[in-house]
């Protein structure tokens, strides 16, 4: 390790919404990533060697086939006809993914992996043009529970909407008890307007996975106006939740008309920040 920046071209060029990494059974690195836009795909990179991202294969998910399809020019005639070489495939990754049969999804964003089972949870934030303004969360089970598998099954874990109270799910995180934490991402321009009016500001929820309340979202907190919670993660001991408050007051018209003055209040300019949530209340939620 030299600390020098390294461009991992083989992970593909698209609107990566994070990169969720896990080790396969044989030690190779596996990286899941969504493409943050309507009608885009879900990807998985599998490295060639354990402990390295230097080289490997990028795959796109086909829900119809329940398979991961390699984005390798030598394996598809359609790629040979339309791309000059493998680098061109990686640069024009979106076009290549569609060409080989990747599923077009409802804005794939957050990805996290359930501890102990390796089940992959993926948030699809929304896609109003396809009649899904509220979004959903899918659960993907890799064959034999191995992240390096090229076959999987999937199901809808949660459908966003009035019944569940969760809309526009985005970033995900599991706590040490195996509960799934979900941040929502209603855009500032749409917040508190139809079809999102009754959901108020963006929220953070926790969803138990295993007990009698499994699958039932619990509202934990509301974000400041125009803001969203992002990047939830837990301390190693699991007793502190760190989460970002992103772009409060984003729809402010001027420096004299703030829609939010979080976190300092008064008439002061809103600022993004990272907060830490800890104590008895968090412990009770996680119990």
Write the layout of secondary structure elements.
Elements: E1 16-23, E2 28-35, E3 38-40, E4 42-50, E5 56-62, E6 67-70, H1 77-82, H2 86-91, H3 93-99, E7 105-106, E8 108-113, E9 120-124, E10 136-142, E11 152-159, E12 169-174, E13 180-184, E14 203-207, E15 218-222, E16 228-234, E17 240-246, E18 273-278, H4 280-286
Antiparallel strand pairs: 1-2, 2-4, 3-7, 4-5, 5-6, 8-9, 9-10, 10-11, 12-13, 13-14, 14-15, 16-17, 17-18
Description:
The protein is mostly beta strands and 287 residues long. Helix content is 9%, strand content 38%. It has helices at residues 77-82, 86-91, 93-99, 280-286; strands at 16-23, 28-35, 38-40, 42-50, 56-62, 67-70, 105-106, 108-113, 120-124, 136-142, 152-159, 169-174, 180-184, 203-207, 218-222, 228-234, 240-246, 273-278. The strands form 5 sheets. It has a 5-stranded antiparallel sheet with strand order 1-2-4-5-6, with no helix packed on it. A hairpin with a 6-residue loop joins strand 8 (108-113) and strand 9 (120-124). The chain is globular, with a radius of gyration of 20 Å. The two termini are 39 Å apart. The mean pLDDT is 94.
Q: Which key features would you list for this structure?
A:
287 residues; five-stranded antiparallel β-sheet; four-stranded antiparallel β-sheet; 4 helices; globular
